[in-house]
Design brief:
The protein is an alpha/beta fold and 293 residues long. It is 29% helix and 13% strand. The radius of gyration is 18 Å and the shape is globular.
Length: 293
């Protein structure tokens, strides 16, 4: 029996009613949006519009940091930068904030939520993010000429490779030892390798009230797409879902605890390509809007 709640549709239910538009802002928690690989804040105008329509008066901030090619910088550098940008917004939000984190940004947000002991994130919405890693011949592998997924480990699992964000969460199921010994980001987040801060990071991550995981089989970039739901390949490239992952079974960073609390909700949406998630109105209405109260 699944321990987490899996939903495929949702309805917008207003939780507060304001008599005047200028009172609306007091009804909704601020929303912080973190972009993905090669994106910038300008790419989220449509999502910003959806939020303004359904939750008028909401204070929405799309963090303008590590844009475009800068998003290739090491993940821990980005985590620190986004933490510095997000912290003041949190300090001014007595009732907490919501995070919407897209693609690579979902892992950046996990890093922030892990190291930040005083964060006040209510709902963490992970939008098509490779939460359990990436391993696939997608268009983004063209970043590395002369490499395909089967030999990209030769670059990623080197000191130089670890200066590139994508390599920080490249997870080759056929070279797990190298992944665990060389990769300096995802194995620490998942506590797959020794992490002296594991207990503290787990406590910090569990400060969130809800974890919303959104992805789908037609994504075309996140590989396997189930990584957006914390699933991943075994050594035979068979996908093992979240509840079969060691990180879940051992509750290394809090997934099993969140599931036991009933605070993980997953959405699987067909027909959405990777670059369209944040522009898709149906995805917003069915999977995101109800959580932004």
């Amino acid at each position: 029996m699944m321990l987490y709640r899996k939903r495929h549709s949702c309805h917008i239910v207003p939780l507060c009613f304001c008599s005047f538009l200028w009172l609306s802002a007091s009804c909704y928690k601020p929303v912080i949006i973190v972009h993905g690989l090669f994106d910038s804040s300008a790419d989220f105008v449509q999502l910003l519009g959806y939020i303004n329509q359904t939750h008028p008066g909401t204070n929405v901030t799309v963090i303008d940091l590590f844009d475009r090619s800068e998003s290739l910088k090491p993940m821990w550098m980005q985590v620190q930068g986004f933490q510095d940008a997000i912290s003041p917004i949190m300090q001014n939000a007595a009732n907490g904030v919501h995070l919407i984190c897209y693609s690579q940004g979902g892992l950046v947000c996990r890093g922030v939520l892990s190291i930040m002991s005083n964060h006040n994130v209510d709902t963490f919405i992970s939008l098509s993010s490779p939460q359990m890693g990436q391993y696939g011949d997608t268009e983004y592998i063209k970043l590395f000429p002369h490499y395909v997924k089967k030999n990209l480990f030769r670059f990623c699992y080197t000191q130089l490779g670890q200066t590139v964000s994508v390599c920080n969460y490249w997870k080759d199921p056929h070279h797990r030892d190298l992944y665990l010994n060389i990769s300096n980001f995802l194995p620490l987040l998942n506590v797959e390798s020794t992490n002296p801060n594991a207990s503290e990071w787990k406590k910090n991550f569990l400060r969130i009230k809800k974890l919303i995981l959104i992805g789908g089989p037609d994504d075309g970039v996140i590989t396997p797409w189930q990584s957006s739901h914390f699933g991943f390949y075994d050594e035979n490239e068979t996908v093992i879902d979240m509840t079969g992952q060691e990180a879940y079974l051992k509750d290394t960073f809090g997934l099993k605890t969140l599931a036991a609390r009933g605070d993980i909700v997953t959405y699987s949406v067909n027909g959405v390509e990777h670059t369209k998630w944040h522009d898709n109105e149906t995805v917003f209405k069915n999977c995101i809007a109800k959580w932004l109260t």
